[in-house]
Structures are given as C-alpha cells and as structure tokens.
Amino acid sequence: MKFSTNAVHAGNEPNLKDGGFGDVIVPIHLSTTFARSKVDKPTAGLEYSRSGNPTRGALEKNLANLEHAKFAYAFSSGLAAITNILLSLKKGDHVISIDDVYGGTRRLFTRVFQDFGLEFTFADFATGKDIEKYIRKNTKMVWVESPTNPLMKIIDIASVSTAAKKYNLLTVVDNTFASPYFQKPLDLGADIVIHSMTKYIGGHSTSVAGAIMINNASLAEKIKFLQNAVGAILSPFDSFMILNGIKTLSLRMEKHQENAFKVIEFLQKNSKVRKIYFPGLPSHKGYDIAKKQMSGFSGMLSFELNTNLKSSVRFLESLKLISVAESLGVVESLIEHPASMTHASVPPEERKKIGLSDGLIRLSVGIEDTEDLIDDLSQALKKI
Ligand SMILES: *Cc1c(COP(=O)(O)O)cnc(C)c1O
Questions:
Q1: Carries keyword DNA repair (predicted)?
Q2: Which of 179, 241, 248, 366 has the most other CB atoms within 10 Å of its CB?
Q3: How far, in Å, is the centroid of ligand 1 from the Cα of 283?
Q4: Which CATH class for the 250-381 domain?
Q5: Could you identify the atom of ligand 1 that is nearest to the CA of residue 149?
C-alpha cells in the first residue's frame, strides 16, 4: 500500500470479530487498567495504560508505517520524545548537534542534560565529512534537523548517516519540518527519527505530541522501556486526535507546499523583502541536497525584511488573517519573530553566530486560499 492509503488505514482496521463493533475510526480507550481472567495472562497483552493503550497502540502502528519504521512510540510532546532519546545515553557521552537546532531542543540539551553529564557540540555541518572534526572518543550521537528551524538549512542525511556509522554513532533526525510525506530519514540511513507531532503530523493545533520511529529492535526495546519507565506517554484522547489528523496529511502537505510557492512568488516581487529562505528555491544553498532527499518542500519559509526591528514588529502586528503565534505546520497560517519568540532562549551572541538576525520572520503557510494569504501579507507590508 502507498502513503495516503496507509495514512488513512494503518492501525485503523475495523474489528469485525471478537465482539468488535466495526468502528471505522479507532475509539478513545480511556481505561487506565485492564482486567484479566488469568492472573499471569494480560488480556490482549494490556496491563496498564502507561505501558500500553489500544488507542495509542493504533497510532503507533500508523506512525511506524508513515516513516517506513518497524517500531514507533508516541509521547506527550516532541520534547518528551527527545528527552527519552537522550535518556538512552550515559553520563559522559557526547552529542554533535546541528547548530541551528529548534530552540527548545537546544535549551533541553544545554540547560537540563548538560547538568546530568551529557556533553554537546553545536556545529554547522551539511555532510558526513563535516562532522568528522567534531568527533571525540566519547561521541555517541549526531543530532540532525533538516530543514532546520528557522534558517531552512539542509543536511545531507545519507552522507551524515554513513559517516556516523563508520564511527559507531547513532544518527537522529528531527523530521518535524519535512513531515514523513516529503522525507523519510530511515530510508536514507538514519537510526532514529523524531517528530513534534504538534506540527504537520497532527496538523490541527489540537494536541501537543511527539513520536520516535526506529528500525533497530534492540534500540526500540530501550526506547519502549524508557517510554514506560519515564512515563511521558501520549494520552488516549491526543492519540485519537493525531490519528485523525494523519488521515489528511498527504492532502495538507500538497496544499501547504503549493501555497508556499505562491507566497514566495509574491514576496520575491516585494522590495521590502531582502532575502527568502526556502529549500525549494534553486538559489537556496541546500537546494541540490533537498532535491535529492526530499520529495517536496512543505510550507515552512523564512524571510528577512529590509527594515529595522520596530518595522518588523509593525508588519507582524498589522496582519489580520495570519496569526502571530509560535508553532507551525498546522492548517492555519502562523507567523512569528524567532529572535523574540521561538528562539528567545538562544543567547543573542549565539543567534548572531548562526545567522539568526533580528529582522528574520518565519512563516508557516497554512492551507487557506492563496489569494487571501497574499492579500493579508500585502496590506501588512504596506504599513511599513
Ligand atoms: C516544536 C518542535 C519541537 C518540540 O516539540 P513540542 O511538541 O513542542 O514539544 C522539536 N523540534 C522541532 C523542529 C519543532 O518544531
């Protein structure tokens, strides 16, 4: 079966036997515990909802399918998923991370896990060759986002994974920005994929959620153990919401991308826009790699206005349809100012170093009618 079919059906198969009702969508199983008739035999393998729940289980089956993974685990947030991966490491282990990493991920690395003895190097890399100089004796993991947030840098996932394997390092890819519809890191050689399902996978701004997808069975066993031992599981209700969101993932991604290209066409003609960051533009630094490893470019783009900070703020506050808000990848268009919002936790000198200017605006193009989005951007740009 192909992507859209699996997105609709995997994990959602109606139960037509064993007293099932034939529900075509997975019910919300709120029970925290499951009764058994034999003391040593959990009914349907279910014991307690932290260790396993039918609604979450259905979602996990669907998620594994989306990323061509054997195993998937759902968590209460993207950061909870990331936390569980880091908890599989030991004190003294070293992680090489892309420098332009999601602000909350960087905060978790430097302000939480560093205190527990994990070491991090933030580096600007695009290929496997680039990471070699950062490898130490205690390096265990390479942390990749592609496209990155918010500068849309592209990292060659196949090349980084190949180099990492040579040194016995695990490659983790945060695939939130591309979504599994446009990019499948496990197929490119990565060991672990994570998602903030709060974004494209869920897509409707209803649930904060995270996921881990893996092929290696012993690694999966470790994560499954941690999911239960740490307890940052996704609730049955949110599992249900995400499972329903996924059914339209392919349709949404196509529309996000179509709208992004049209909005870019408009922005390119506006003299107040200095620079646009979008991996689907041939002028983008990572375009060739993006073409090779992605089947599309999603609806995430950033641009720099030709004005000062005050005017950038006036532009944002003049928008009527597009909401100024954090988050991304959802049906409604959202816009934000990384320096004062999503990346405010990154120290100013760090922001400067990675090229994250005060005039940078990040736009998550939704699935509204294109003309309405362009009209809104146009009237707000006229105010500066
Ligand atoms: C939002 C986001 C996260 C964090 O996910 P939450 O669901 O907010 O915890 C991690 N990585 C990327 C790229 C994100 O956009």
A1: no
A2: 179
A3: 27
A4: alpha beta
A5: 13
Structure tokens at 210: 């995270």
How many whole angstroms from 326 Cα to the centroid of ligand 1?
10
CB 233 within 8 A of CB 55: no
Is residue 101 within 8 Å of residue 145, measured between CB atoms?
A: yes
Tokens coding 161: 């994974």
Which atom of ligand 1 lies nearest, measured to the CA of 328? 15
- Is the separation of the CB atoms in 177 and 184 below 8 Å? no
Strand partners, 362: 302, 336
Q: Which two tokens stand for residue 268?
A: 């390119």
For residue 358, the model assigns a pLDDT of 84
Q: What is the pLDDT of residue 275?
A: 95
pTM for the model:
0.96
Secondary structure of residue 74 in the 3-state scheme: strand
What mean pLDDT is predicted for residues 260-264? 98
Of the chain, the percentage scoring pLDDT greater than 70 comes to 100
Would you say the CB of residue 193 lies under 6 angstroms from ligand 1? Answer: no
- Which amino acid appears at position 126 of this protein? A
Q: Is 174 a catalytic residue?
A: yes
User: In angstroms, what is the span from residue 78 Cα to ligand 1's centroid?
Assistant: 5
Whether 275 is catalytic is no
Per-residue model confidence as pLDDT tens digits over 221-238: 999 999 999 999 999 999
- Hey, how many other C-beta atoms are within 10 angstroms of the C-beta on 7? 24
Q: How many whole angstroms separate alpha carbon 254 and alpha carbon 300? A: 12
Contact present, 60 and 72 (Cβ < 8 Å): yes
CATH number of 3-246: 3.40.640.10
- 287-328 pLDDT, tens digit per residue, is 999 999 999 999 999 999 998 888 999 999 999 999 999 999
- CB proximity list for 212: less than 8 A, separation 6 or greater: 72, 73, 75, 81, 84, 85, 192, 193, 194, 223
Check residue 41 and report its DSSP letter.
B
Kindly report which listed range (105-119, 296-310, 340-354) carries the lowest average pLDDT score: 340-354
Integer Cα distance of 295 and 298 in angstroms? 10
Place of tokens 């992680």: 95
* Residue 239, number of CB atoms within 10 A of its CB: 29
A 10 A CB-CB count for 56 gives 26
Q: What residues does each domain of the chain span?
A: 3-246, 250-381
41 is catalytic: no
Q: Is 362 a catalytic residue?
A: no
